[in-house]
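Q: Here's a chain of 164 amino acids. Please give me its 3D structure as tokens.
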Amino acid sequence: MPSLDRRMRFRLLDEIVEFEPGASITARKWLRPEEDYLKDHFPKFPVMPGVLMLEAMFQASAWLVRKSEDFANPVVLLKEARNVKYADFVAPDQTLTVTAEIIKQDEQLTTIKGQGTLDDSVAVSGRLVLERFKLADRYPIHSNVDPHSRHNLRAEFDRLWNPA
């Protein structure tokens, strides 16, 4: 039986620097020179893979959705990535600043406008469609997982978001 543990296995965000519930989020990812994937991803020209830039946008977007709903729907999945454009490389020791803004939302889906920038230059942008739900609604036998997930997600959000 496949695992129903849907936690991310890796974190691509170092901190959340701005958060406006129901509206937007800004987070940062500092690309450390020692990150494992840089050894294989163009070893002579190490850069953050585009798919990880997209994943950073998704992770920021998921935090925006979860926290805006007070973690009511702990499961947030990337359903679609639309019009994703890559315009710059993220190299070691650079910081990717990711912003996500809610464009529209219904009972299950949230559409996000996202981008990642280096200083004032856009490195990646696109629209993401996120699906959100409670595990208990889809898999009633696992209804005990949602409270545990909410607890862990709240703790992780608090680690990332430390407003001054």
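Q: Can you summarize the key feature?
A: The two ends are 45 Å apart (CA to CA).
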